[in-house]
Every structure is written in structure tokens, then in C-alpha cells.
Amino acid sequence: MSFFTEIQIPEFPWKMDYSKSMMLMGSCFSENIGQKLIDLKFKLDMNPFGILYNPESIANSLKILLQKRIFTEGDLFNDQGLWNSFYHHSRFSDTDRQIALKKINSRILSSHEFMKTADFLIITFGTAWVYEFKETGEIVSNCHKVPASEFKRFRLGVSEITETYRELLEQIWKINPAMKVIFTVSPIRHWKDGAIENQVSKATLLLSVDRLITGFGNRVCGYFPSYEIMMDELRDYRFYAEDMLHLSPVATDYIFDKFSKVMLSKKSDTVSKSVLKIRKAFEHRPVNPKTVAFKKFIQQNLLQINQLIKQYPYLDFSAEVSHFERELALFKNDRNL
Q: Which in 39, 74, 130, 152 has the greatest CB count within 10 A?
């Protein structure tokens, strides 16, 4: 007997593996999934503009990457001592305007190159509600605590979103014809929009994605049902964080496990288990690092890393190797004292 409704996820016609590269764009849910892929050593570029919530802001960011647009001093504004960009998350802001520009432009240049050869583009829509800056008429990605009175708030329509992405994806495929696009709708509720408005917003996003996949076909586009998994399989508040809106670590792990089963190749799944074992060893902090047993533990992990790199030279374990070698050096120094 089954005690919950399980989402049946159809097989995707293509799989991700360690030889493939991925670009992730969108809400904080995309960062949750993206960080897990980074920890497993997959090659990816995650949110080169920071966290983005609405389809229009994500589309604008992708257009900037396509054009390789360079930001200038006039693109930034100062508020309470910080230089900000309406196209970027606050992680790109700085008290020094030139430093802010350097962070923004260096990321645009590197992400432009990455997008030209990326095998997958994963887009996570969070909300259909947008904020338009009255002074310029542009939809912003981040309000940066500018007073709400400076913005016009409204909800995008299904036709607006689908038309924007039909044109955008055609442009992307001109420079990267092999790229596959995966859409998902964030299961995180935007409660500030209101309960009913949040549901209408999510419905708008779901309808838009459905139209895009129907139009382009599942050979180039796909949908991963993260929203549906959360709403149906995990419909219990124990799977939420303390704010009762964001996902708990358990829920994130569960959805990522579902993602892995349908999106990652079997070979990658085997490799990822070995990588995860090394990651856990990397994060392990011993009670007594001066024991011979801990020395053997370090040496075994360095050996395993070398074996993995020989098989899969594109894996990057530089951080882990530096950590283990540093621990080994400290062990030897203690023994010599």
C-alpha cells in the first residue's frame, strides 16, 4: 500500500554526465540544486547575475550574455553607500563602483564563453510577478531596498512569457545548436505576493512552460516537476524550513535524488557516489588529528582522488587535495617536534 501520491517523471531523451556542462539560471531553488551539482564536481555555471525570480529578468540576463554587453558606470546607482545594478543580485554590489563593475563584467565575459558550448541550460522560474522601475520603464531583477513607490508591480501573462522565450531560445540555438533546455518551476512559495496571487503566478509559469515545450518539442526542451514533487509527494510542513516557505534540507535532498535518477546517466551516478565519499571525508573534522589512523585516512583519500582523476581528468579536486596535503604536512610537523 502506498501512503502518498508519487509523481511519475518520464525518461528524458538525453542525459547529463561528467563530460557535459550546464548553466543554471533562476531562483534560489536553482542554487540549491546547483550547489549539489557543484559539490559532486559537475561542470557548471550557476546564476552569473545572482538569484533571479521572474521570467523577464532571466530572459534579460540571457540576452546580456548573448550580446556580451559590458556594463559602465552609468549602469550602476548608489544607495546607502553601495553601488548596485538593477540587473544583478546584491552579491555584485560594492562600496567601490569600479570593484562592482569588475565583478559584473568579468562574470559576463566568462559566462558568455561558457554559454556558447554548454550542453544544458536549466531555467527555474520563481514568480510571474515583476517590478518595473517607473523612471526607466525597465523590469528589474532586484529592487535593492529602493522604496516600493518607485516601482510599478504587475504580473506577466502567459503569452508575454512564451513569446519572449520563443525568440530568446531561437537566438541561443543560433550560437549553440546542441544546447538542451530544461525548465522547472520553483516549489518555494512567494507568500508576499499573497496566497491566491502566488497560486495564480505559479499557474502562469506552468502554462508558459507547457506552451514552450509543446511548441519546440521534447527533443530540445524538457520539464522537471520540482513544484509538483513538493506539492504532492512532500505535502507536509516537516519538509519546510522554519519560515514554512522555503524547503528543508531533507526536501532539497529528496528532490535532487529524483532529479539525479531521471537526468544523470548511470555512469555519472556511479562516479558521483565516489565523489560524494571524498567530499564527506573533506568535511570531516577529527577529534584528534594527530593519530596515525587519521594519517592513513588522509593518505587513502589522496589515493582515491588520484585514481578518480586518472579515469576522469576533467574532475577538479584541487580544494580537497590542498586540504588533505595541508593536514598531512601538519601531521608530519607535529611528529618532528
A: 130
Over residues 188-215, the mean pLDDT reads 95
Quote the pLDDT of residue 335.
62
**139: three-class secondary structure by DSSP:** strand
Query: How many Å apart are CA 267 and CA 137, to the nearest integer?
Result: 49
> Please, what sign has the CA dihedral across residues 318, 320, 321, 327?
positive
Beta pairing, strands 21-26 & 120-125: parallel
Q: Which three cell numbers stand for residue 97?
A: 563602483
Architecture of domain 21-264: 3-Layer(aba) Sandwich (3.40)
Side-chain half-sphere exposure of 307, counting CA atoms within 13 A: 10
Nearest CA-CA partner of 328 in 280, 284, 291, 276:
291
Cell numbers linked to 96:
567601490
Q: Tell me the DSSP string of 260-297.
A: HHHHB-HHHHHHHHHHHHHHHHHH---S-TTSHHHHHH
Q: Name the residue among 241, 243, 239 with its Cα closest to residue 230.
A: 239
Delimit the CATH 3.40.50.1110 region(s) of the chain: 21-264
Q: What angle do CA 111, 80, 84 make, to 5 degrees?
A: 15
The CA–CA distances, whole Å, from 110 to 89, 157, 293 equal 17, 32, 43
CB atoms within 10 A of CB 301: 22
Do you know the residue count of the chain? 337
Quickly list DSSP for 30-87. HHHHHHHHHHTT-EEEE-TT----SHHHHHHHHHHHHHTPPP-GGG-EEETTEEE-TT
Segment holding 207, helix H or strand E: helix 195-216
- What does the pLDDT look like over 161-193, one tens digit per residue? 999 999 999 999 999 999 999 999 999 999 988
Cell numbers linked to 238: 516537516
The C-alpha atoms of residue 263 and residue 139 are separated, in whole angstroms, by 33
The tens digit of pLDDT for each residue in 223-281 reads 999 999 999 999 899 999 999 999 999 999 999 999 999 999 988 988 999 999 999 99
